[in-house]
Design brief:
It is built from 5 helices and 5 strands. By secondary structure, it is an alpha+beta fold. It is globular.
């Protein structure tokens, strides 16, 4: 036997449980962000504080393979990927370390295996920070400016 029904309190609409909207979860956000970085022809990448790739777009992946002969995947270290090219490894290390100190900057730098393709890039770097403002990595947008500088 059930006891008498307890009176129900009115619950504000803002506190009622709503069905979970799966289009707003972390996985959906990841697809949206990947779509955004893939939508540009610029080469876009991001590193964590250990210098490991946490994201890059298809343009970056393809260009890295073309000029360095290395296929990247998320989690790879740029330093390891460039171990066969000490000059580029050193130059990349300098850029990554500067960005991972929290500095936003733009520079021109030449990269690429001379046996494959050597190109000049305009590189825009910016720190990545969490909600509390703590540095968690760095983002890079690169544009091949080789032809533009040959004309100048």
């Amino acid at each position: 036997m059930l006891g008498p029904a307890k009176p129900q309190r009115a619950v504000p609409a803002s506190t009622k449980r709503r069905p979970r909207d799966r289009s707003r979860g972390p996985l959906a956000l990841r697809y949206v962000l990947q779509g955004l970085i893939d939508a540009t022809s610029d080469l876009v990448a991001a590193h964590d504080l250990r210098g490991r790739y946490i994201a890059f777009n298809e343009a970056y992946r393809a260009e890295f393979a073309r000029i360095f002969g290395v296929e990247l995947k998320v989690g790879d270290s740029m330093m390891d990927a460039l171990s066969h090219l000490p000059r580029d490894q050193t130059n990349a290390f300098d850029v990554v370390q500067r960005a991972l100190r929290g500095e936003a900057f733009t520079l021109l730098a030449e990269f690429g295996d001379e046996r494959r393709a050597r190109r000049l890039y305009e590189i825009r770097c910016a720190p990545l920070r969490d909600r509390r403002g703590r540095l968690i990595g760095a983002a890079y947008a690169l544009r091949d400016v080789t032809e533009r500088h040959r004309v100048d």
